[in-house]
Amino acid sequence: MSKKYFFAITNIGNEKLLKTEMEFRYPSWKFAYSRPGFLTYVGPENDDFPTELMMARVWGESKGKVKEFPKNFKGFFLKLDESWDWPTTYVIKQSQINLGSQPLMVLVAPDEVWQGELVPQAYSLGTVGEVGLSEDFQAPSRAYLKMLEAAKAFALDLKAADKVLELGSAPGGITTYLLNQQLEVWGVDKAEMDASVLANKKYHHLNNSLEKLTEREYPKDVAWVVSDINLPFKVVMKHLTPHIQKLTKLKGAVITAKIEKPTQLKEVLKIKHELGVKFKAKVLIKHLPSHRQETALLLLFK
Question: How many degrees, rounded to 5, is the angle at CA 277 between CA 215 and CA 298?
C-alpha cells in the first residue's frame, strides 16, 4: 500500500500535546520521527492531510531528510533555533515566492535538514514557518506579543475607539497593545497594573475577578472581548459565556485556552464546537509563536 508523509512544527516543549492531538483527531496518521519542535507522521495514500491543528504552527507534506541539497531549489528556509548556522555545504538564497503552499527547508538540528511542502493556511502571520513577528515594543509583559500575533494572524478589524473588555489584564501586556491601537479598554484583574497603563485615560481598571464580574461594570456596547487568564479553559468559558451572551454589539472575542494536560485538548475542541453552535459564530483556532502550553480561539459574530 502506498503511503504519504506529513510534518508539523510546534513550539518547543509542546511535542507531547501535539502527539496526543494527532492520535485522537487523525488516528490513521502514525508517528514516525521527532526532534524538538518537529514531528513527522506516515499515513495512507488516500488520506487527506490534517486541515486544523491546535498545537502546531505549520504543517504539510514531508519529503524526508535531505542528504544532498537539491539543485535549483526555489522555496523558503526555516531554522528551529536561530542560534544555529546552516551547514556550510548549503548555499542559502531566499526566493521571493508567495506565502501559502510553498517548498520549505527546515533545519531541525545543527546538522539535520528536512524538506517539505507547506499546506496553505486560511489565516496566517505571513512569515516563513509562522515564526514570531519582529517588532520593538515596550510593554509590561510578553502577553503583548500574543495580541500582536493574534491581530495579525486573524486580521482583526480593530477600529480606533472600539471598546474592549479584557479579562486578566494585569500587568498590562495585552492592554498596552490595545491602547496603542487607540482602543478603549475595561481591564478586569485584582492584580496590580503597570503604572504606564493606569496613566492612560483610555484604560478603566475593574478591580475584580471574572467569577464576580457583573455587567454593570462595563459598557453595553463593548465591541471586543479579550481573555488571557491562567485558568483552565473550561472554567474561563463557564464564567465568560454569560457576559458574551449579553453583549449585543460584540464583533468578536480573542480567548487564550490554557492546555497544561493532554486530556484538556478534547475539552477545548468540544467547547470550540459548542461556542460555534451557541452563538452562531465562526470559531477559529491557532497556535501562535509566543504561545507556551496554550492556543488562541477567535469567535467572530455575524
Answer: 65
- The amino acid sitting at 93 is K
Q: Where are the alpha helices (DSSP H) in 195-232?
A: 195-198
> Can you identify the CATH homologous superfamily of domain 143-300?
Vaccinia Virus protein VP39 (3.40.50.150)
- CB of 132 closer than 8 Å to CB of 290: yes
Q: Which phi and psi angles does 229 have, rounded to 5°? A: -100, 135
| Three cell numbers, residue 149 | 500575533
Beta-strand relationship, 76-79 and 58-65:
unpaired
State the pTM of this model: 0.92
**Residues 81-102: tens digit of each pLDDT:** 989 988 767 666 555 445 556 8
- Using DSSP's 3-state secondary structure scheme, residue 137 falls into coil
Res 25: pLDDT: 97
Distance set, CA 184 to CA 156, 221, 236 (Å): 16, 12, 23
φ and ψ of 93, to 5 deg = -125, 110
Alpha-carbon distance of 237 to 157, in angstroms, equals 23
d(CA 247, CA 224): 9
CATH of 3-122 among 3.40.190.10, 2.40.30.40, 3.90.550.10, 3.30.2130.30: 3.30.2130.30
Q: Which of 32-41, 88-97, 233-242, 262-271 has the weakest average pLDDT?
A: 88-97
Helix, strand, coil percentages, rounded to 5, for the chain: 25, 30, 50
Three-state DSSP state, 144:
helix
